[in-house]
Amino acid sequence: MSVNVEVRNQARVHLWYEAKFGSIYPPLKKVTDGIDRYLIRSTCLGVDACTGKLYSTHGLSDLLNNRLRMNELNPRPDLFMEKAASYQARWPWLQRVE
Fold first, then answer.
1. Domain boundaries of the chain, sorted by first residue
2. Pair 44, 35: CB distance under 8 Å
3. Which segments of 24-63 are extended strands (E)?
4. Residue 45: beta bridge partners?
């Protein structure tokens, strides 16, 4: 089975976020700040490239149970619904949790 992994640089998001999404995105002070702000709780994950250590803002329960839940640390219902619908179109077994 093949898996696609997206690697993103979050350091400059604060420079363009407001123009694109209409709200301020404070600059990140550390890499986990960006992970903590992902729209969907089960995607708030990162792996330290040097140690292989997993970072998870909310634990792994939602991920292991195929749940899509809005991240209360970045409450954007409009963007959450759009992203969740995109995920469900690709992976229909995912369940959105309100």
1. 13-97
2. yes
3. 45-47, 54-56
4. 56
